[in-house]
Amino acid sequence: MIRSIAVVLALVLALAGCGGDTTTDPGDGAVGGDGEELFKRTVLADNAGCVTCHSLTAGRVLIGPSLADIGAVAADRIPGTVARDYLEQSIVDPDAYVVEGFRAGLMPDDWVEGGLSTAEVAALVDYMLTLGAG
Ligand code: HEC
Is the pLDDT of residue 2 over 70? Predict the structure, then answer.
């Protein structure tokens, strides 16, 4: 009886150990998935961070458009493209759609090359979906 409890305990500990591995850095500089924290960094993936060009105050233009309402606006940008896909594209291929009144070529397009992981892009998209969407 005591022996089987020990075996079960050992198994549980081994499983817990494996679970811990999922938080390990995959090796590309990825850090967790807090999109707001990533968005607000002043330097991100070898570029100026998102906040250096985008304000979260409605109508306040820095270098790029304010993203105060982007969670709501994103759905109407490209007919047939849902908000999530539009936002992902605006990070990985910013010039695919250029917001009226702004110039192409200003927003960096090498976030992934700079080390931003797929999970981090998704976290940024998740965060932006919350902006002005309620
Ligand atoms: C050097 C300035 C700069 C940085 C840094 C920057 N952007 Fe941009 N961004 C722009 C400009 C300029 C535009 C408008 C032109 C365009 O649509 O490509 C834009 C457009 C966008 C749009 C489309 C907005 C809309 O109203 O449709 C999104 C979303 C966006 N950026 C997200 C981000 C995120 C997320 C980051 C950080 C990972 C970031 N940007 C970093 C300059 C920047």
Answer: no
